[in-house]
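FAQ: What does the model actually see?

It sees only this:
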Amino acid sequence: MLQSAPPDYLLQRPQPHDPPPQYPVYYFFYGALTKPTQLQRIIDLTEEPKLRKAEVIGYDIAKWGDYPALISGEQGQVVSGYAYPVQSAEEAGKLAEYETRAYKVASCCIFFQDGEKPKEVGGKVFMYAGDAQALLEGRLDRKLWERQMGGR
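And it is asked to produce this:
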């Protein structure tokens, strides 16, 4: 079996797997979803949601065309936005569909800036799914293109 493995197989570290989320789960938003009316429309809420002012640390925002894209940043770097407690897998699915395959869900620590409790929680965020360096350099992102084309 090892003969069919990639040459660096034994050097690769196993990737940790997140357990399935328990709802509600706070999601951090930094773009169009920071507008309550937009979030209400996307996840089919009957009333406008209450968003909490929040930050994530260790991330940066790059531009993907007209859209902001969250990427890994420097230690201590802060991205400001808002968080909302997503109530179900159905709501999470609607958000993922809205964000497209250009973004992937990642775990994060959300720090609230509104003086309410809790002051911080483990949550989720949509990060750019492609090659962040290609995005920053403005060149073709083959990784994202393949992801959007379904691995073709």
